[in-house]
Automatic annotation (TrEMBL):
The organism of origin for this protein: Novosphingobium pituita
Domain of life the protein comes from: Bacteria
InterPro entries for the chain: AKR (IPR020471), Aldo-Keto_reductase (IPR050791), NAD(P)_OxRdtase_dom_sf (IPR036812), NADP_OxRdtase_dom (IPR023210)
Keywords annotated in UniProt: Oxidoreductase
Lineage of the species this protein comes from: Bacteria, Pseudomonadati, Pseudomonadota, Alphaproteobacteria, Sphingomonadales
Name recorded for this polypeptide: Aldo/keto reductase
Length: 339
């Protein structure tokens, strides 16, 4: 049976628009979590998302090396006006070019490729996917500001960057969104970025708000994940950390059951409850999860339940870093001191 969302006027601001608080991260349809769905199934999921009331799709050039933008573009033919569309540039992970490149000329060239793949003449929100430490942030944002003035992008976003970087960027041009991982078990944004977003008028966009499936009761045995699943290389899912984390997950699942919601719905409500300037973009390749994630988006988590989640799952109780060291080195977001 489908889980349908209740009728609700509940909206949150993003780039001058009033959008549903839960959008759709499209990455899972192309990359990262095992075998990708067929193109037919991927397009069917995106169409179902629009039917359910999802009005914010988030993609990136990185996801499937253009596959995701291509898929989203095909799905939105004739439906482009129904969706606030976000994409990202800056990370190169195939062919001769690897690493991060946010030079002004690269930004412009990558945007043109994205417009072609997405079959659109504008992208509502365009992100720098990661900080390029070889280019002053002011130069990269200045190049993106030119694209805003030309009408090719509606607004500028940053991803996985620090509060200081956000403030410097915002002094050059308004920054509509900061996208960073955030869930009960990933709290780095609480160090400084959430407050900085509120300070400069930037919406915080939480990716992996159900902890890459861990807080959606979607992972019981990481060793059983499909070949190529990126979670297998993440410390929290490895054998030396997983048993302790699974014990936390089981207790979290019990809290959700007591509240009459699913674990995913509890995690999403916890994220949204941390500030009215926050939206979440859970990703999935399954329609049932798509329906589940949006079904309780107007549920407000009680303060006492938030406190219970905070006490159970936090920086001190979760075992392992969110990224392996090689990936962690590319992140500009503030981090906690090692225990």
């Amino acid at each position: 049976m489908s889980i349908l969302p209740p009728a609700s006027p509940f909206r949150r601001p993003l780039a001058g628009r009033a959008l549903a608080p839960i959008g759709l991260g499209c990455m899972s349809l192309s990359w990262a979590y095992g075998e990708r769905p067929s193109e037919e199934d991927g397009i069917a999921l995106l169409h179902r998302a629009i039917e359910l009331g999802y009005d914010h799709f988030d993609t990136a050039r990185l996801y499937g090396q253009g596959h995701n933008e291509t898929l989203v573009g095909r799905a939105l033919k004739g439906k482009r006006d129904k969706v606030f569309l976000a994409s990202k540039m800056g990370i190169f992970a195939s062919g001769e070019k690897r690493g991060i490149d946010c030079h002004p000329d690269t930004i412009r060239a990558e945007l043109e490729k994205s417009l072609t793949l997405l079959q659109t003449d504008h992208i509502d929100l365009y992100y720098m996917h990661r900080r390029d430490f070889t280019v002053p942030i002011e130069d990269s944002v200045g190049a993106m500001a030119d694209l805003v003035r030309e009408g090719k992008i509606g607004a500028i976003g940053l991803s996985e960057m620090s509060a200081d970087t956000l403030r410097r960027a915002a002094a050059t041009h308004p920054i509509a969104a900061m996208q960073t991982e955030y869930s009960p078990w990933t709290r780095q944004a609480e160090i400084a970025v959430l407050d900085a977003c509120r300070e400069v008028g930037t919406t915080f966009v939480a990716f992996s708000p159900v902890a890459r499936g861990a807080l959606a009761n979607g992972v019981r045995d990481p060793q059983a994940l499909e070949e190529g699943d990126i979670r297998k290389a993440m410390p929290r899912f490895m054998a030396d950390n997983w048993p302790r984390n699974l014990a936390l997950i089981d207790r979290f699942n019990a809290l959700a059951h007591e509240a009459g919601v699913t674990p995913a719905q509890l995690s999403l409500a916890w994220v949204l409850g941390k500030g009215e300037h926050i939206v979440a973009i859970p990703g999935t390749g399954k329609i049932a999860h798509l329906e589940e994630n949006i079904a309780r988006q107007d549920w407000t988590i009680p303060a006492d339940l938030t406190a219970q989640v905070d006490a159970l799952i936090n920086q001190q109780t979760v075992s392992g870093h969110r990224y392996a060291q090689t990936m962690h080195a590319t992140i500009d977001t503030e981090d906690f001191e090692p225990a």
